[in-house]
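For the sake of clarity, the format in which proteins appear in this thesis is described at this point. The record quoted next illustrates the convention:

___
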Amino acid sequence: MSSDLSNESTGSLPLNFQAKTVMTVMVIMHLACFGVFFVGFSWPALWVAIAMYVIRGMGVTTGYHRLLAHRSYKTNRFIQFIVSLVGGLAMQGGPLWWVSHHRAHHRDTDKEGDIHSPVMKGMWQSHMGWMMSNEAFHEQGSNSRDLFKYPELKFLQRQYVWILAAQIPGLYLLGNLLAQWYPASGVDGLQCLVWGFFVSTVFLWHVTFSVNSVCHRWGSQDYDADDASTNNWIIGILGFGEGWHNNHHYYPSSARHGLRWWQLDMTWFLIRSLCLVGLASEPKIPKEFRKS
């Protein structure tokens, strides 16, 4: 089975075309956020934006990161598919591409091979510039072959663009439904689309990207992980526990990143809840923190 992720995700398109496409989409998404000045504000639209931020963000952290990339807990294939599908809606790449890059990051953290290290590449490149470069599409997926045995994950990778695009009519229709239920709020389909898709996605992007940039520059280091990773409480809260990044780099296979009682880790709460109802099992936690 081929491990070429560029073929899995975008066929035989040249790399420079892929990089330019990502750049164009990112510019459009950011500009579209200014649409809030034209569509206005309503509480239903804001709550939709918050819900989309939380659901998709937790899909990235619970599915893409802690399950697929690090196998930090076990679950059945249906739950694996669902959390991976939700992670894909965050518009941060297909699951196989995402996992391949993240594992490469752990292999070469803050060294020459790490294409989004602020130490090696600077803040702009580490935050989001790397995704608009040809380097972002050089990863061939040899480090994620363990996931290629799941045809449903390959499906999510191949159909990634269509899956995330389905959110656009979905949110527009949701806004129209909310307009019928709460006519006095002023919500409508276009407003729900701007807030729930464009604003929510871009805000989630920058929180996720900050794990690569901010959490390798500012924060505390409880452990010597042989890299510049830090624990940053702001990203820890906004990123559903991902900001406890120094903890993660020292214990990369741990399902729990917020190791101290005061380190809020919403992703761990979700994984623990899945375990309590029998939908997940065997979460990996450092021995010294298993009772805390």
Notes: Residues 6-13 have pLDDT under 50 and may be disordered. Residues 259 and 289 are 7 Å apart (CA to CA).
